[in-house]
Amino acid sequence: MNTFLWVLQALLAIAFLAAGFNHAFRAEQMKAQRGGQWVVAVQRPWLTVIGWLEILAAMAMVVPGLTGIQPGLTPLAAASLAVLMVCAATFHLVRHEYPNLALNSVLFVLALAVAYGRVVYPL
Fold first, then answer.
1. Residues whose CB is less than 8 angstroms from the CB of residue 78 and which lie 6 or more positions away in sequence, other chains included
2. How far apart are CA 6 and CA 4, in angstroms?
3. What is the pLDDT of residue 37?
4. Which of 65, 84, 67, 80 has the alpha carbon at shortest distance from 5?
5. Which one of 36, 46, 80, 81 is least enclosed by Cβ atoms within 10 Å?
6. DSSP H/E element including 72
């Protein structure tokens, strides 16, 4: 089970590092991408905050386990990402952006699995 959770944590870390980097630093380029029209509906400072939260949570997916320092941060970060995905899914649902909604739902399930898994099977 530990290996399975590590794989999920790594996948989430990669996904949220990429998303966080795009949200924090590449908002203008995201507008031109397919499915990126939602970026114009979010004020730039909020998008930057969301991006940095995603980057920090992605780091909290792996760093505590690798260092042994504050391993309780991992399930907390995963739960926070699950909440963030609920907010993002709600945003996209209101805007009828269903492809984005599907991705948010998958990331929500993975984050919830890590949050639950790391409470039951701590690092």
1. 9, 12, 57, 61, 111, 112, 114, 115, 118
2. 5
3. 83
4. 65
5. 46
6. none
Q: Are 16 and 81 in contact (CB under 8 A)?
A: yes
To the nearest 10 degrees (0 to 180), the angle between helices 98-120 and 2-25 is 140
Could you tell me how far CA 55 lies from the centroid of its own chain? 8
Pick from 115, 105, 25, 18: which is nearest to 61 by CA? 115
35-74 in b/e form (b: 16+ CB < 10 A) is: ebebbeeeeeeebbebbebbbebbbbbbbbbeeeeeeebb
Alpha-carbon distance values, 30 to 21, 26, 34, 36, 39 (Å):
11, 6, 8, 5, 7
Average pLDDT of the chain? 94
For the ranges 30-34, 46-50, 84-88, which has the lowest average pLDDT?
30-34
Q: Are 17 and 55 in contact (CB under 8 A)?
A: yes
